[in-house]
Amino acid sequence: MTAARILAVAVDCHQPDLLAEFWAAAIGNGKTRTWTDSHGTVYRQVDFEDGPALLFQPVPEDKAGKNRLHLDLAPVERDQRAEVERLVMLGAKVLDDPADDPWVVLADPEGNEFCVLPPR
Question: Could you give the domains of the chain?
């Protein structure tokens, strides 16, 4: 029996619109929507056909240090190098490309780290 399921991964950020558009394009099959909580905070959310949503919530603080949680992506329609190039064209930045490991570390437009692995 499943005790719970992940509905969304929340990301603190300065520019929810920018990150929602980046991640919707990066993953591909997402639909973005905007909603407001009872305190007037406006969120951007990307809902996907499969898997949890990505929720971008505005915060005043800057990102400090390495993420404690990050996403690992695997391309569906291209090889790893082509996927990294596509993500860079969308606004990501390559942070590390270790020769001895199968992943490439990138950062989204606000500096949140994520990895791209070979196709599965």
Answer: 6-60 (3.10.180.10), 67-120 (3.10.180.10)
